Amino acid sequence: MHRLKQLVGRSPVVLWRSGSLPPCVSQSVRLQTQGPMEQFGLKRFSTAEATAETRDAGKLREKILTMETLNPHVKAVEYAVRGPIVIKAGDIERRLQQGVKQPFTEVIKANIGDAHAMGQQPITFLRQVVALCCFPELLDSPAFPDDAKQRAQRILQGCGGHSLGSYSASQGVECIRQDIAAYIEQRDQGIPADWNNIYLTTGASDGIMSILKLLVSGQGSSRTGVMIPIPQYPLYSAAISELEAVQINYYLDEANCWALDIGELRRAYRAAKQHCQPRVLCIINPGNPTGQVQSKKCIEEVLHFAYEENLFVMSDEVYQDNVYSPDCQFHSFKKVLYEMGPEYSSSVELASFHSTSKGYTGECGFRGGYMEILNMDPEVKAQLVKLLSVRLCPPVSGQAAMDVIVNPPRRHEASYTQFTKEKNSVLGALAEKAKMTEQILNSVPGMKCNPVQGAMYAFPQIFIPPRAVQELGHAHRALQRLNEAARRTKLICLSADFMKNINRAFQLLLN
To answer: Are 389 and 316 found together in one domain?
Structure first.
């Protein structure tokens, strides 16, 4: 405050360049300067007078941020998961709530894997621990089991001021990082995990974006290329557009249950080398939106390819608990990497991601997640910590939820029976729905769907009859003629984006 008074006394112009000061500030300035503002050459007038003078001068203030001045990389971002169709669905939903009659009574949003929004019930133990962390007074309540209280107390002891409302370290609460490392070590059957390589994130998406920021560099033909599977989760293409990296598509083999073919990886890599520098290989296992679970042999081939071509591997493993096919098993990329021997495990750079949003908990709203980083240069790791520090820390409540997932009740603890029952119920229901979805889609004429081995999605193929394709071609040409006529007559004009999307749709259908 003393410093502020000094500044006000010396230079009132710096604090308020135009218009009038709020009454309390104006009075403060007069007291400090021992006189009215007019004697310092400042004109006082009301907001209305200022507006009138501006208008009289014929100068209307232009907006700084317009579609013309907007960052072009933001405009290039496309994220269909929350795109125009979802916005339209929200409008319809609001009209239903207002009593507008429709030939249906509800809108079912199947655009995103939001389990609780679709009726999945939360896991009791997770909510108990988070509730205790949020309101520690409940630790004295007999309504909560001892194992939930013990976990909550441990988490709170790791928080500043023993409060979930404090900032954590940018990498996350230390004891939670230690619990994650212990979980990974158990999951991977004894392969060691160092908690110093664990970073808590705001969902898996935050971690993926942070790693891509580190990797994208260069100009022209040396610009970073990022290899992503097609079909893909739109986060990847959106992040690549925002960071102005080069997207390298490799296509999953639909005829082989969406398997990842190493020959296709090599084809995509060689083609991309002509115009960029491929540096990153992104894997989603189990697959989103294709539902495949990669075999151990496939993972070995992928890691060998990354080793040969010196690629940084990003393994999105948020659906690691969602495996439904009895013939499939989840293998972490880290475990397979270590089993390939020290030549690979000590050199291939790997970032693996997990989240509270999927699995059997479906806690999307907590925005909890983590990433494990292997073989990253120590100086680059310091830069990563700096980058993470800019956003201070992930939500600490989400960190607490993540801790419960990696540190669930054990056999001898009070909550084990109920927890196991709820977990198996959720995963069993998802497996049943996966099978049912596959069967229903395959029963529809003109549709074909591969078995849903894991994750939470099916990606069917739709066969369009030749006559329908022909009619669509006629409609496409008619739309083009209409748009051209509109441009000439200036009566109406379809937007360029609309025509671009129409063209894209018809090309997909006709090819």
So the answer is: yes
SS (H, E, C) 326-394: CCCCCCCHHHHHHHCCHHHHCCCCEEEEEECCCCCCCCHHHCCEEEEEECCCHHHHHHHHHHHHHCCCC
Which CATH number belongs to the domain containing residue 145 in this structure?
3.40.640.10
Are 153 and 281 contained in the same domain?
A: yes
* 326 and 182 Cβ atoms separated by less than 8 Å: no
Query: How many angstroms separate the first and last alpha carbons of the chain?
Result: 69
pTM: 0.77
Q: Please give the single-letter amino acid code of residue 59.
A: K
* Local confidence pLDDT in tens for the 511 residues of the chain: 444 333 333 333 333 333 444 444 434 444 444 445 444 454 554 555 555 555 555 667 788 778 777 777 776 766 665 667 778 888 888 988 898 888 888 888 777 778 898 889 999 999 999 999 999 999 999 999 999 999 999 999 999 999 999 999 999 999 999 999 999 999 999 999 999 999 999 999 999 999 999 999 998 899 999 999 999 888 888 899 889 999 999 999 999 999 999 999 999 999 999 999 999 999 999 999 999 999 999 999 999 999 999 999 999 999 999 999 999 999 999 999 999 999 999 999 999 999 999 999 999 999 999 999 999 999 999 999 999 988 899 999 999 999 999 999 999 999 999 999 999 999 999 999 999 999 999 999 999 999 999 999 899 998 888 888 788 777 777 767 766 665 555 444 444 444 444 455 445 444 4
228 SS3 class: strand
Q: What CA–CA distance (Å, rounded) separates 274 from 291?
A: 32
The answer to whether 359 and 404 are in contact (CB under 8 A) is no
Q: Are residues 253 and 386 in the same domain?
A: yes
Q: Domain tally for the chain? A: 2
Helix (H, G, I), strand (E, B) or coil at 151: helix
- The Cα 153–Cα 147 span in angstroms is 10
